[in-house]
Amino acid sequence: MTIKLLAIGKTDDKQLAHLIEQYIKRLGHYIKFSIEIIPDIKNAKNLRTSQQKEREGQLILSKVATSDTLILLDENGKQYDSVSFSELLQKHMNSGIKQLIFVIGGPYGFSEEVYQRSNGKLSLSKMTFSHQMIRLFFVEQLYRGFTILKNEPYHHR
Predict the structure, then answer these.
(1) DSSP character at residue 107
(2) For this UniProt entry, which segments traverse the membrane (predicted)?
(3) Is the pLDDT of residue 157 over 70?
């Protein structure tokens, strides 16, 4: 299985980008992982919120194959502790799927088409964070999940 993180817009903060890269390298010991950045919509300020979500949704769905499992990082998603999240990862690996895709949407969330295509929603917190910070939190939790599955000391129980 491979895991991909799709995200709208690039990370401008070089320190955050560096930390994200460190976790991507660490994840390479456990699974094939990649981040794919979907560029921000041009002239978004001239669009209604619904139009922006629709355009971003089309771009997201163009990156997803019918065989992929799609999990949206969404404020209304299910919350897991780190151990439960690692168990979710194991469940997906055991299911035989080829690719698990997690998506961080744009500033207004996801279009209805993306919600309909998704296989689930995951919330990292009830708090609101910048999309750039969520990338770091997600890759760290993904790394933590794999260290839990391998019974390695990174996660202290």
Answers:
(1) T
(2) none
(3) no
Instruction: Give me the pLDDT at residue 67, please.
Output: 97
Q: What is the CATH number of the domain that holds 17?
A: 3.40.1280.10
Cα 97 to chain centroid distance, Å, stands at: 17
CA distance 59 to 128: 24
When divided into structural domains, the chain yields a total of 1
Annotated binding-site members for S-adenosyl-L-methionine: 73, 105, 124-129
- 157 found inside a domain: no
Residue 156 lies in a domain: no
Average pLDDT on 69-98 reads: 96
The domain in which residue 129 lies consists of: 2-149
pTM value > 0.90: yes
Is there a contact between 80 and 88 (Cβ–Cβ < 8 Å)?
yes
Residue 90: predicted pLDDT? 97
Asked if residue 90 belongs to a domain, the reply is yes
Buried b (16+ CB within 10 A) or exposed e, 56-87: bbeebeeebeeebbbbbbbeeeeebeeeebbe
91-102 confidence digits (pLDDT tens): 999 999 999 999
